[in-house]
Amino acid sequence: MSTQQSIINYIAGVWLDGDAEGLDAQVPLAELNIIDSAGIFDLVHYMQDDFRITVPLREISPANFRTVDTMAALVERLRREGETVR
């Protein structure tokens, strides 16, 4: 399963009663009131647990959690950065 699909499934399960219809990787989540600032912290916890990454506090911003695409890009970037640290 792709990073995007995993995030979509999580959002649908937590905030949309399991209904991912109409939710794609470009939907502006906060603008459509799908998630709020508290939801961002829930997503951070999910991403850290599911993708085995650490999301630094400086990366927790509305810009990084605007869409599923931006979250997936953050996950991939943090994975790459984590590999270079090891």
TrEMBL record:
Identify this protein by name: Phosphopantetheine-binding protein
Ranges where the Carrier domain occurs: 1-79
What does UniProt list as this organism's lineage? Bacteria, Bacillati, Actinomycetota, Actinomycetes, Kitasatosporales
Q: Which domain of life is it from?
A: Bacteria
Q: Which InterPro entries match?
A: ACP-like_sf (IPR036736), PP-bd_ACP (IPR009081)
Instruction: List the transmembrane segments.
Output: none
- Organism encoding this protein: Streptomyces tauricus
Q: Which PROSITE patterns match?
A: CARRIER
Name the SUPFAM superfamilies for this protein.
ACP-like
